[in-house]
């Protein structure tokens, strides 16, 4: 008996987005924005995978790959229905020229962890999408950047993560995985190199409620405050189970987060004596990742409050980040009271 291969079981990202649009979860403009982001991520994936071949490694190489990924993501967004974009690479938000512009506000980090490129360690692009904001676009300066009159746009880009409509990342690793939430759970799509499409590989991902993996750069241990040191010391205590936590840290937020999303545990980038607010950016690193974490049943905290409740006051604002399994983040918060 010939087994019927269920060719209709494969769902591409494009097909999934169209289904969400048909179901009224997202509108046509947002579908276009998300499609253009996924297209840009495919381009970045090939850039990253060929970095050492096309001489994009080493300091100058890293600068080039950073520049090229930024241009690729920005230009792809330009062709989308985006109104304003704010990126780690731009000092101020950039307005998309009138002819292309839609209304959505997209914040992104084109290539997080890019210092890992030379060693071919996982890197990633992170994005978040906020609701349209018409009057904001009216203030845009002639050169498409937000001049002083455009301060309201800055304010409108600086929205709390609780306003996010969609968030996601693309991880460039042993496989290229596009993870997205539009507020209805977390979905993962793996790039099939055979035909260059992202195909649905995991749906409604749930972070394990607890996990004995902690992901911190302990090189900063001496700079941390005593309550945090006590928390880390206690994780190493084998305790009655006889098994301490395991440490896993690759120095790339997207790779460390994706492992935490699937295996459970906690990733942390604390404040320390040198960096009063830690290192990671609220708008285009911590908030999008926290939206994903919460949609998967986990938590994202600055140690005292929900990341998604923080009202950004500056585009490149930094905050401490503790993110992952609900029970692990809550345990950490108790130590920091
Ligand atoms: P450190 C990469 O530069 C990054 O922004 C995150 O991707 C990563 O988790 C963190 O910084 C690594 O920082 O200080 O441990 O090298």
From TrEMBL:
Keyword Hydrolase in record: yes
Gene Ontology terms, MF aspect: fructose 1,6-bisphosphate 1-phosphatase activity; metal ion binding
Pathway: Carbohydrate biosynthesis; Calvin cycle
EC number: 3.1.3.11
The Fructose-1-6-bisphosphatase class 1 C-terminal domain, residue ranges: 207-336
Cofactors, names only: Mg(2+)
Keyword set includes Magnesium: yes
Keyword annotations from UniProtKB, A to Z: Carbohydrate metabolism, Hydrolase, Magnesium, Metal-binding
Domain Fructose-1-6-bisphosphatase class I N-terminal: 12-202
Single GO biological process annotation from the record: gluconeogenesis
One GO term describing the cellular component: cytosol
The reaction(s) this protein catalyses: beta-D-fructose 1,6-bisphosphate + H2O = beta-D-fructose 6-phosphate + phosphate
Family statement drawn from the similarity comment of this UniProt entry: Belongs to the FBPase class 1 family.
Self-association and partners: Homotetramer.
Name of the protein this chain belongs to: fructose-bisphosphatase
Record organism: Hevea brasiliensis (Para rubber tree)
Span of the entire protein shown here: 65 to 401 of 401
């Amino acid at each position: 008996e010939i087994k019927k291969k269920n060719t209709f079981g494969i769902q591409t990202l494009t097909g999934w987005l169209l289904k969400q649009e048909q179901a009224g979860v997202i509108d046509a403009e947002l579908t276009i924005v998300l499609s253009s982001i996924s297209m840009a991520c495919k381009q970045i994936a090939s850039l990253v995978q060929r970095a050492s071949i096309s001489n994009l490694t080493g300091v100058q190489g890293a600068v080039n790959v950073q520049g090229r990924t930024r241009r690729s993501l920005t230009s792809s967004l330009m062709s989308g229905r985006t109104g304003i974009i704010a990126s780690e690479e731009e000092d101020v938000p950039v307005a998309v020229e009138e002819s292309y512009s839609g209304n959505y506000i997209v914040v992104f980090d084109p290539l997080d962890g890019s210092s890992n490129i030379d060693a071919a360690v996982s890197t990633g692009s992170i994005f978040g999408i906020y609701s349209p904001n018409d009057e904001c676009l009216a203030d845009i300066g002639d050169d498409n950047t937000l001049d002083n009159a455009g301060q309201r746009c800055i304010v409108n880009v600086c929205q709390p993560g609780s306003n996010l409509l969609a968030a996601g990342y693309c991880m460039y690793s042993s496989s290229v995985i596009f993870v997205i939430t539009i507020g209805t759970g977390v979905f993962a799509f793996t790039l099939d190199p055979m035909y260059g499409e992202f195909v649905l590989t995991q749906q409604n991902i749930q972070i394990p409620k607890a996990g004995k993996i902690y992901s911190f750069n302990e090189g900063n241990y001496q700079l941390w405050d005593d309550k945090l040191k006590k928390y880390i010391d206690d994780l190493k205590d084998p305790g009655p189970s006889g098994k301490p936590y395991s440490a896993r840290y690759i120095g790339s937020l997207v790779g460390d987060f994706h492992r935490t999303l699937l295996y459970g545990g906690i990733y942390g980038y604390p404040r320390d004596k040198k960096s009063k607010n830690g290192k990671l950016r609220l708008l285009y690193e911590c908030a999008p990742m926290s939206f994903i974490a919460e949609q998967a049943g986990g938590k994202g905290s600055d140690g005292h409050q929900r990341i998604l409740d923080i009202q950004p006051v500056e585009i490149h604002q930094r905050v401490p980040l503790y993110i992952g399994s609900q029970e692990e983040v809550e345990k950490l918060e108790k130590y920091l009271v």
